[in-house]
Amino acid sequence: MKQKDIGIVKTEYFTFAEPGHELKLDSGESLCPVTIAYETYGLLNKDKTNAILVAHALSGDAHAAGFHEGDKDPGWWNDLIGPSKALDSEKYFVICSNVIGGCKGSTGPSSIDPKTGKPYALSFPVITIADMVRAQKRLIDHLGIKKLLCVIGGSMGGMQALQWVAAYPNHIQCAIPVATALKHSPQQIAFDEVGRQAVMADPAWNNGNYYGGEKPERGLAVARMIGHITYMSDKSMEEKFSRRLKVKSRSFKFAADFEVEGYLRYRGDDFVKRFDANSYLYITKAMDYFDLSCDKLIAKDKHIDVRFLVIAFKSDWLYPSYQSQDIVRQLKVRGADATYCQINSTYGHDAFLLEVDEETHLIKHFLDKTFCGYDVTREYEI
Fold first, then answer.
1. Looking at the annotation, which residues are catalytic?
2. Does 4 fall in a domain?
């Protein structure tokens, strides 16, 4: 039976950090004011104990579920958020906000700098995952929630979930980091740097000052194409494209002869319609700076009362399973209640968006245990 969707939703906006109450950043700089775009699904209960924060990945935004008026496609995690789904909107109050540094309603490099009346561009301060989470905490405080039931996210969203544990362990009951890491490996940093260089090599980038003129669309499209290659696995690419041609015969020109070429070009061209090139630079740099290794997730002299469900995917070579296992090892050394599950998927890193049935099974049971006291299997592979 087809599950119900949430229906029509609207994005809301919260502005804070007025003069005298600036948002202090890890760089030593500050932002004033700050706007966060967010959406909510479901109702907050009387005790305000059923709130779940969903953290998005690099190219995500606040629109995680439901439909905006007139849209054909729902939010990016619609399959997991809604009535009777993994994040059941009839049981939980689900929140998703666009990160600072983004370009979908939250303050970022494309926002207007109140000091100049022009877009920040590269005068926007460099941000970190910790800065993103500080802003989210201000939103959660604004909503009157003292303790989140859960913070969940995949990829960069998983980093935010871990950062919530490091920064605010007394303000969350559980965390579900999916397909993520305590820190980027040199290879992960390298892929991000190639993407950034592709953007900055575009003549239209103009040192970040392209607002109001031609945008660095080709550079950003190439960066996105590189990213999509890393999101898929060798097997999923073989199954989806193999060496199939788009036309009956080869063109013997530098055209998109192969289906995989056409797919990557489409993805790149589509991405530039909805994303800001400077935001891409800032957010990927924030991911590269992220580092909760070496006891920075939970200090040696601390014990925290937070439950963890860490999910990895067998074919994910961008965020391989060993990185999720490193998270679990650090947690268990600190005596944390941690469950590790590896899903036997062929989708690569994209699996956190696609393996709906398996993730639903794991997340539902884990949240039931946390919220209602039901049991959940401790550690297994599915």
1. 155, 316, 349
2. no
